Amino acid sequence: MVCPCCSTEMTAIAVDARSGTPLNIDLCPASRAIWFDRYEDLQLSPAATLKVFGIIGERSNAAAAPWPGRIGCPRCGAGLLHTHDIQRNTRFQYWRCDAGHGRLMSFIDFLRAKDFVKPLTSQQIAELRENVQTINCSNCGGAIDLAKDTVCTHCGSAVSMLDLKQMAKTIGQLQAAAAGPQAIADAEAAKAAAPPRGADLDALIAAIRARGGSDSPSLIETGFSMLGDLLRMRF
Q: What kind and span of H or E run contains 190?
């Protein structure tokens, strides 16, 4: 399948549905986009969700290719409809085919739909401002000058970060569900490996420094690499 965002060939990923039947989802690392045929995103088994998390963590180091203004359905070519949704208390977006062929999601919106992304509080923004002057928007990549802005002036997105505590909790639950009762201890170890509550931002700032102090780092990009580290751990 050709990526509807950048016209490069997407990578087909074989995963299992909750029913045990095989699924093939299509992923584009260049655009950081995932195409789900009809309802595939709702059918992913716990093991399949973990696999997608792992791919996101491994393939999110390069700069993302910008998405075009009009995105066509890779199945029928019709323009995809920009759609907003909410899961628990987290808002996310995707582009859907009105003919029902499927939906396109960015990596970050897939994580938003799984409740992995949260906006920073005013206290966290103040702490971040003391350590980092400029960051890149996690949505469009535009620079955000923390001295005067707390939202992206290009797309209006709030400064956000991956919720490391929620990440570790969810990964532990998915591992337990995928492996059965014997994985309960693994899930508890995953929780213990996570940063303590309230320390998420400190961990991200430390990771940014360790990566060389980029002039315009991205909290989400740094979180992606930490997501990969979490998934590579053998609990």
A: helix 184-193
Two tokens at 176? 């337990």
DSSP β-ladder status, 33-37 and 134-136: unpaired
Report which residue type is found at 121.
Answer: T
Write the single-letter amino acid at 25: I
Q: Which residues of 132-148 are buried (b: 16+ CB within 10 A; e: fewer)?
A: beebbbbbebeebebee
Which residues have C-beta within 8 Å of that of residue 217, sequence separation ≥ 6? 132, 135, 136, 208, 211
Edge-to-edge strands of the sheet including 22-28? 11-16, 22-28, 33-37, 102-106, 90-96, 81-87
Distances (CA, A) of 39 to 91, 102, 155, 193: 19, 7, 28, 33
Distance CA 47, CA 109 (A): 19
Helix (H) or strand (E) holding 206: helix 200-210
58-106 per-position pLDDT tens digit: 755 555 677 888 999 999 999 999 999 987 777 889 999 999 999 999 9
- 91, two tokens: 């808002």
Write down how long the chain is: 235
User: Distance of CA 56 to CAs 52, 146, 177, 228, Å?
Assistant: 6, 27, 20, 8
**Beta strand extents in 126-199 (DSSP E only):** 134-136, 143-145, 160-162
CA–CA distance from 60 to each of 2, 32, 68, 92 (Å)?
19, 7, 19, 19
Q: How far apart are CA 138 and CA 220, in angstroms?
A: 6
Query: How many other C-beta atoms lie within 10 A of the C-beta of residue 127?
Result: 15
pLDDT, residue 235, reads 40
